[in-house]
C-alpha cells in the first residue's frame, strides 16, 4: 500500500517512520534530509544517462532505460529497505516526488511494505527548511572576545535543558582562521542549512533561544540571511572574562594543534595581523611558545571583535563579568542576568 504524505506530516512521525532517499549518492552528499538513508535507484553516471535520454529522445525511452539499468537491482533495494525498516513501514522520496520515488514505492508496496511517498520530495524539505529561518525566535546572543568560553558555556547550558543551537558545531568550524582545528570538514552549504532547520524545528518560541555571536560566514558556510538579520537585531550579552583566563582557555583548545597547521593559518591572516606580528607569531609557534603566539594574534581578534560590536545598537549590548572557569556558576549568573532583560 502506498500513500502520499506531506513533509510536515512525515516530520511529525520521523522518530518512528524511517525515510529512504532514492536519489544518487552525489545528490545525497550535496544535501539530504537529516536522518534519511540513501538507497539510490541510479548511480551518478546512470542518472546522467537517463536524464540525457529524457531530454534528447523521449520520456518513454528514458523510463525503459531506467528499468534496464535497475532490472537486476530490485531485490537488493528491497533487502536494504528491510534492514532499514524491518517492520515494513517506510517513507520514500526523490528530488521532486516523481518517477524515482514512485518506482521504489511501487516495488516496496508490491513486496508488502506500508509505503509513504513524500509529496514534492526533497524540494519540499528545502522549502520547509527556508521557512524555519523566517520564524520569530526569542533570541539571545552570547558575545565576548575570543577565548571567553562562549561555546563551552552554551554547551553546558544546553545540557542543563536550555534552548541552544550550536552554529559552529553545525558548520564544523570554530569561526576563525584556525577554525577547522586541523580536523573538521565543513558540510555543504545546503546540508548546513538542512541541519540547522532540523534543530530549529524543536525550538519553543516562548522560551529564550541562545546563539553564539558569529560573523555571517562561519568558515565557508553562511548563516541564512533571515536568521542572520534577526541575530543582528537581538539583545547581546557581552561576556567580560579576564585576559589571563582567555589565554588559558585558548591554550587548552589550540596549544596542542600541529605547528604547521597553526603557522599556515597565521600566514592566511598576515595582511590583517601585520608583517611584524605575523613573523613574531610564527616564530613563537615553532619555538613552542604557544601562550606568546596566542597573545599576539589576540591583538587582531580583539580589535576585530570590538569593531563588529560597535556596529550593533548600543542599547542592545549588555556587559556581564564572568570567570570563564566555573561553568555552573557562570551559567547561573548568565541565566539570572538574561532574565532581567526580558
* N-to-C span: 51 Å
Name of the top-level CATH class of the largest domain: Alpha Beta
**Rg of Cα set:** 25 Å
**Which fold name fills CATH's third level, the topology of the largest domain?**
Rossmann fold
What is the helix tally?
A: 17
> What structural class is derived from the secondary structure elements?
alpha/beta
Low-confidence stretches: none
Give the helices and strands as they follow along the chain: EHEHEHHHEHEHEHEHHEEEHEHHHHHEH
Assembly state (oligomeric): single chain
Do you know the CATH architecture of the largest domain? Answer: 3-Layer(aba) Sandwich
Provide the helix percentage. Answer: 40-55%
- Beta-strand percentage range: 5-15%
> Which outline best applies?
elongated
Word description of this protein:
It is a single chain. With 342 residues, the chain is α/β, with parallel strands linked by helices. It has 2 domains: 2-129, 3-Layer(aba) Sandwich (Oxidized Rhodanese, domain 1), CATH 3.40.250; 136-339, Rossmann fold (3-Layer(aba) Sandwich). The protein is 53% helix and 14% strand. The protein is built from 17 helices and 12 strands. It has helices spanning 7-13, 25-30, 44-56, 59-70, 74-84, 99-111, 121-132, 150-159, 167-171, 189-200, 225-233, 243-254, 259-268, 270-273, 275-286, 290-310, 327-339, and strands at 2-5, 19-21, 37-38, 89-93, 114-118, 138-144, 163-164, 208-212, 217-218, 221-222, 235-240, 317-321. Strands 1-5-4-2-3 form a 5-stranded parallel sheet. It has a 5-stranded parallel sheet with strand order 7-8-6-11-12. Helix 5 packs across helix 6 (99-111) and helix 13 (259-268) packs antiparallel against helix 15 (275-286). It is elongated and about 70 Å long. The model has no long low-confidence stretch (mean pLDDT 96).
Amino acid at each position: 500500500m502506498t500513500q502520499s504524505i506531506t513533509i510536515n506530516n512525515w516530520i511529525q512521525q520521523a522518530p518512528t517512520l524511517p525515510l529512504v532517499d532514492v536519489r544518487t549518492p552525489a545528490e545525497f552528499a550535496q544535501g539530504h534530509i537529516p536522518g534519511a538513508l540513501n538507497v539510490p535507484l541510479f548511480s551518478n553516471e546512470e542518472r546522467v544517462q537517463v536524464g540525457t535520454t529524457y531530454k534528447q529522445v523521449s520520456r518513454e525511452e528514458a523510463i525503459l532505460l531506467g528499468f534496464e539499468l535497475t532490472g537486476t537491482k530490485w531485490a537488493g533495494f528491497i533487502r536494504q529497505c528491510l534492514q532499514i525498516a524491518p517492520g515494513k513501514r517506510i517513507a520514500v522520496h526523490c528530488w521532486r516526488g516523481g518517477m524515482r520515488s514512485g518506482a521504489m514505492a511501487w516495488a516496496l508496496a508490491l513486496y508488502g511494505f506500508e509505503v509513504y511517498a513524500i509529496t514534492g520530495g526533497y524540494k519540499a524539505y528545502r522549502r520547509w527548511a527556508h521557512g524555519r529561518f523566517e520564524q520569530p525566535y526569542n533570541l539571545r546572543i552570547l558575545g565576548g572576545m575570543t577565548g571567553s568560553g562562549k561555546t563551552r558555556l552554551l554547551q553546558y547550558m544546553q545540557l542543563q535543558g536550555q534552548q541552544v543551537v550550536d552554529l559552529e558545531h553545525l558548520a564544523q568550524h570554530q569561526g576563525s582562521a584556525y577554525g577547522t582545528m586541523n580536523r573538521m570538514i565543513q558540510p555543504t552549504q545546503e546540508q548546513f542549512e538542512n541541519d540547522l532547520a532540523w534543530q530549529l524545528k524543536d525550538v519553543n518560541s516562548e522560551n529564550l533561544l541562545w546563539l553564539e555571536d558569529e560573523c555571517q560566514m562561519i568558515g565557508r558556510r553562511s548563516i541564512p540571511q533571515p536568521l542572520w538579520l534577526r541575530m543582528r537585531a537581538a539583545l547581546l550579552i557581552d561576556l567580560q572574562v579576564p585576559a589571563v583566563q582567555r589565554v588559558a582557555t585558548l591554550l587548552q583548545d589550540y596549544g596542542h594543534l600541529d605547528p604547521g597547521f597553526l603557522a599556515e593559518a597565521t600566514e592566511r591572516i598576515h595582511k590583517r595581523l601585520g608583517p611584524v606580528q605575523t613573523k613574531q607569531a610564527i616564530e613563537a609557534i615553532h619555538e613552542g611558545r604557544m601562550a606568546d603566539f596566542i597573545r599576539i594574534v589576540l591583538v587582531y581578534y580583539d580589535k576585530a571583535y570590538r569593531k563588529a560590536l560597535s556596529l550593533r545598537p548600543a542599547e542592545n549590548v549588555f556587559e556581564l563579568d564572568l570567570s570563564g572557569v566555573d561553568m555552573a556558576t557562570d551559567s547561573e549568573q548568565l541565566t539570572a542576568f538574561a532574565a532581567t532583560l526580558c
